[in-house]
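Researcher: We plan to redesign the surface later, but first we want a full-length starting point. Tokens attached.
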């Protein structure tokens, strides 16, 4: 052992001597301290297999070690505290280490080694240059804290994704990343935050190219997102005209895709309105029956309460000849009433369950429409964000590929496989063709490589081998794809990422059942908990073009383990398959046969080990046909109304409730009351003084007002159901009133309900109340002791969050709409109520301080993009500091349940704000935000556009999906810089207010109530207007020549109602209308 150490020491001495000779240093004087004067050391080629003797050179500034093939470890540098430049290149170093004490290091060159991970770099705070090219690095990482890094070279590695590590390098100027495996244009968005970057290389004649650098619109994408770039891929691109052209191109593309998205959203709104109309039609009969039965029920209850021997005899004499004054006693009469009441209640409960089922069907149908629409919109956005390198083409029966896919799916469906799920057939709704340039190039290259290494050298033989090795296989839901947008990610990036992740390989099948069985089983188990009997009815299949090459048959019990799977670090070895020898590198699939299947001779699965050999080409949206009818009778998967009413009973009989209504006793309604005078009230209640009236039942008396009702100071219970009341102005200052039933009226507001301090029960169901915030606000202010509220069957606007909102506002409430409020509901409601107020904490959590908008192809608002991607949050010095608000430029408060715009006065530099999907009913509080350029107030409850007059710098305004009725001229004329306006799905009757918006380029005003075609004349002065959408208005649907009329008078338009205006249309319009 000692001899080995001596030999090792002698070997190191020889290496050190060689180092001294190479650098002209006297080796004999080295131990006398002469090495302290040495600042630079260089060692080229062989002779230095390990780093030794560095302790003799403590003041070394530069160390260069090149071409040492056997050097595998960075070591012995602990004493080089003054080292500024280190070269260890063309060696075999596997790991970055041993640099902890080199705190002054500025330039580090470790190219052409065997480094697989970027680690142990964060302590090099002064590092400016880092070269790690020609290694085997797979991901960019470990750069935290390198705030002075200016140049990075990662060329010729195995990097497939850029990630967000580069965002942490504020001074990065030069980045070389050629010769890697980066594919996605979207991945280049990670460069946006690196604002100092001016030199970028993604393809290079020495290192080669990334796949992304070969796709269409690559340069345009770079120039738009990185306008500061001066050198790209070795070329000087410091040209303003190039970048201006890119900006113009992207702007046009965004306008085009935004128009298409708006068209899809409008179509979705129309379908949802169709679903709503269908639901209303289905509920009309049961609701009418409920109304009639409830009227009888309340009449019977009133009769029961007021029954007496004399009254009952009188009534029976009127109502039935089978009873007389002496035979009917009070008890028997009450028993009859009770029996009839119980029957009526049972029938009402049955009808309410039918209405509930219709509502569930409505929710399901609505979700189907929204899901398919959102899926289509996401595909459009993917087209835009990938620069058109991923496109989706919807097919029809005239397309050969559509018919081929349709027949393929039907031929691969075996009903016997689905017996356990009661599935009898399959119906195809839509087939979409996927055009992915990047995946196709990767597929073709990998197949070409495989064929080039095969034994078939002849070109014709290779073609035959290619044709025989191509399969079209299916894939569907998997745990890996059960992520957000997992299916879309599969269509964009292919199977490579999924095949390489830790969750396992991707299973492909040549039949529908095997590809969809995991989804079926998962949803079946989930349905058992939720009570849905058929949750798997609708699904999607991806049809992929697969090069299977030579495959090996595996047993079923081996299918779960990736046997013979080539490991990344393993050495390729041969295996015998079909009497042929193939490297593991290319045998990337295993065929798995399932002997339990009836079609076992035909049905097989493949396990994907190389995702590049799988090319997704088609997406099939389908519906399983089951023995059980669809739950929803309203609308099918793609918006076509269904004539089948499913399980909803058909009430075509004359009077389906006659069996109950004809039961004894037959109570006649009381005479109508034209007004409520004191004499009428005394007679109605059979009392001598109004002070004695504590309960007043005015059910079904034909009342339109409750005048003088507030004179009843001792009134505790008031029933005014089934009248014609439109408001409750007379129910004011009633200190004793504890119960009020105003159901089945025509109430449009609760504003008159005031000063009822002890009112604990309120029933306003079956009225016409619409505005949740106003009505609940009235109750909260004037009915402070309310414990029970019934407000069902009102046409509430934006009722999705009604229950939570109401519970949060009415703190004393215990029962809402017949259901007790749980502690969990109370807690959730209180949290949401607290979050609905805009406070300084809310602003701090949802704001940014960027001075420039991020360049992005996203169609989302600037506020949304900055809030999602920017890291520039406001800096707060202490709790009392409010000056940070002056630096806020971006505010994103979408979907926060906000009911009022407040506490925005200090945001004087606010430029981009979004308050979409809230409960705001008034535009206010923005008077000091005069720098605002973009404002999104869509999907709220706004009825007027007051509050915008001072926002003179506004360029983009979105107030779609509100209750706006007019665009006031005195407000809109101040928005002189407005370029984009979205007012779809409102109730606007005129666009006159836009006549002075000369900068307007895009106007979306579909689904409003503009009826006069001459409204178009108000837009003739808007010469910058490129895109106009007025579809869904009466003016667009009532006139056959509407399009020609608009094109003729607005000849500057480039697109109308979602369709481009052609020169032929302009000529036709001129010939038709020009005379």
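Model: Full-length starting sequence:
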């Amino acid at each position: 052992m000692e001899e080995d150490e001596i030999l090792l020491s002698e070997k190191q001495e020889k290496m050190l001597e060689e180092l001294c000779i190479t650098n002209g240093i006297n080796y004999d004087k080295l131990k006398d301290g002469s090495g302290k004067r040495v600042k630079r050391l260089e060692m080229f080629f062989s002779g230095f297999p390990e780093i030794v003797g560095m302790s003799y050179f403590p003041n070394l500034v530069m160390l260069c070690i090149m071409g040492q093939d056997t050097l595998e470890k960075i070591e012995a540098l602990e004493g080089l505290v003054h080292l500024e430049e280190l070269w260890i290149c063309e060696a075999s170093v596997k790991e970055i280490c041993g640099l902890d004490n080199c705190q002054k290091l500025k330039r580090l060159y470790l190219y052409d080694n065997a480094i697989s991970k970027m680690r142990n770099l964060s302590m090099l705070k002064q590092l400016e240059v880092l070269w790690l090219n020609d290694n085997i690095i797979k991901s960019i990482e470990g750069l935290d804290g390198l705030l002075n890094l200016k140049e990075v070279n990662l060329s010729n590695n195995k990097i497939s994704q850029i990630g967000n590590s580069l965002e942490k390098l504020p001074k990065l100027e030069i980045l070389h990343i050629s010769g890697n495996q980066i594919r996605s244009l979207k991945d280049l968005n990670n460069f946006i935050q690196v604002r100092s970057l001016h030199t970028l290389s993604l393809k290079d004649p020495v290192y080669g190219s990334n796949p992304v650098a070969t796709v269409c619109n690559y340069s345009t994408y770079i120039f738009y997102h990185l306008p500061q770039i001066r050198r790209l891929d070795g070329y000087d691109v410091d040209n303003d005209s190039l970048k201006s052209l890119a900006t113009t191109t992207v702007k046009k593309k965004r306008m085009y895709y935004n128009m298409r998205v708006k068209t899809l959203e409008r179509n979705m709104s129309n379908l949802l309105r169709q679903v709503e109309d269908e639901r209303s039609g289905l509920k009309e009969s049961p609701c009418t029956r409920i109304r009639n039965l409830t009227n009888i029920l309340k009449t019977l209850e009133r009769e029961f309460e007021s029954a007496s021997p004399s009254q009952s005899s009188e009534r029976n004499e009127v109502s039935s000849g089978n009873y007389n004054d002496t035979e009917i006693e009070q008890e028997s009469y009450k028993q009859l009433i009770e029996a009839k009441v119980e029957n009526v209640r049972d029938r009402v409960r049955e009808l309410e369950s039918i209405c509930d089922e219709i509502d569930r069907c409505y929710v399901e149908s609505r979700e189907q429409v929204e899901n398919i629409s959102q899926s289509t919109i996401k595909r459009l956005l993917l087209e835009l964000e990938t620069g058109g390198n991923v496109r989706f083409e919807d097919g029809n029966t005239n397309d050969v590929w559509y018919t081929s896919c349709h027949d393929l799916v039907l031929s691969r469906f075996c009903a016997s496989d689905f017996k356990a799920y009661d599935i009898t057939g399959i119906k195809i709704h839509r087939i979409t063709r996927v055009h992915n340039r990047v995946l196709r190039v990767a597929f073709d290259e990998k197949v070409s490589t495989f064929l080039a290494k095969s034994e078939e050298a002849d070109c014709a033989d290779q073609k035959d081998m290619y044709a025989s090795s191509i399969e079209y296989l299916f894939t569907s839901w998997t745990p890996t794809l059960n992520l957000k947008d997992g299916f879309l990610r599969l269509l964009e990036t292919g199977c490579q990422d999924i095949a390489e992740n830790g969750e396992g390989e991707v299973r492909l099948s040549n039949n529908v059942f095997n590809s969809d069985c995991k989804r079926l089983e998962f949803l079946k188990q989930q349905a058992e908990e939720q009570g849905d009997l058929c949750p798997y009815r609708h699904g999607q299949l991806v049809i992929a073009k697969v090069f299977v090459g030579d495959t090996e048959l595996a047993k079923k019990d081996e299918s779960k383990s990736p046997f013979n799977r080539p490991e990344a670090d393993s050495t390729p070895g041969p295996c015998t398959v079909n009497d042929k020898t193939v490297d593991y590198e290319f045998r990337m699939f295993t065929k798995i046969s399932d002997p339990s299947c009836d079609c076992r001779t035909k049905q097989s699965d493949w396990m994907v080990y190389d995702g590049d050999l799988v090319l997704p080409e088609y997406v099939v949206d389908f519906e399983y046909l089951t023995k059980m009818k669809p739950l929803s009778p309203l609308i099918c998967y793609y918006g076509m109304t269904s004539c089948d009413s499913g399980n909803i009973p058909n009430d075509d009989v004359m009077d389906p409730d006659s069996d109950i209504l004809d039961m004894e006793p037959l109570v006649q309604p009381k005479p109508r009351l034209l007004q409520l005078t004191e004499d009428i009230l005394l007679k109605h209640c059979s009392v001598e003084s109004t002070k004695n009236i504590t309960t007043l039942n005015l059910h079904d008396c034909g009342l339109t007002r409750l005048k003088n009702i507030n004179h009843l100071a001792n009134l505790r219970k008031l029933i005014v159901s089934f009248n014609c009341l439109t408001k409750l102005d007379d129910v004011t200052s009633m200190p004793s009133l504890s119960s009020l039933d105003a159901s089945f009226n025509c109430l449009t507001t609760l504003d008159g309900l005031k000063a009822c301090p002890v009112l604990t029960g309120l029933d306003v169901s079956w009225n016409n109340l619409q505005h949740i915030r106003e009505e609940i606000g009235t109750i909260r202010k004037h009915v402070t002791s309310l414990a029970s509220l019934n407000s069902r069957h009102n046409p509430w606007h934006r009722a999705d969050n009604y229950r939570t909102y109401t519970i949060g506002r009415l703190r004393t409430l215990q029962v809402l709409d017949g259901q007790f409020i749980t502690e969990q509901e109370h807690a959730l409601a209180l949290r949401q109520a607290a979050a609905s107020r805009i406070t300084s904490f809310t602003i701090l959590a949802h704001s940014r301080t960027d001075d420039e908008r991020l360049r992005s192809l996203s169609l989302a608002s600037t506020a949304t993009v900055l809030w999602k991607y920017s890291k520039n949050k406001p800096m707060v010095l202490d709790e009392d500091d409010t000056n940070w608000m002056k630096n806020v430029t971006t505010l994103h408060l979408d979907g926060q349940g906000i009911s009022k715009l407040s506490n925005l006065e200090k945001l004087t530099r606010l430029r981009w704000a979004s308050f979409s999907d809230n409960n705001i009913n008034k535009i206010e509080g923005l008077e000091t935000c005069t720098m605002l350029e973009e404002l999104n107030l869509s999907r709220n409850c706004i009825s007027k556009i007051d509050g915008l007059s001072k926002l003179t710098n506004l360029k983009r305004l979105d107030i779609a999906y509100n209750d706006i009725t007019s665009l006031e001229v005195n407000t809109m004329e101040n928005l002189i810089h407005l370029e984009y306006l979205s007012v779809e799905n409102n109730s606007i009757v005129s666009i006159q207010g836009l006549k002075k918006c000369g900068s307007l380029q895009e106007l979306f005003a579909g689904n409003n109530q503009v009826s006069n075609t001459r409204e178009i004349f108000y837009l003739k002065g808007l010469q910058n207007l490129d895109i106009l959408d007025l579809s869904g208005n009466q003016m667009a649907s009532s006139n056959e020549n509407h399009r020609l009329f608009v094109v003729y008078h607005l000849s500057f338009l480039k697109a109308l109602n979602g369709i481009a205006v052609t020169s032929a249309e302009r000529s036709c319009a001129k010939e038709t209308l020009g005379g």
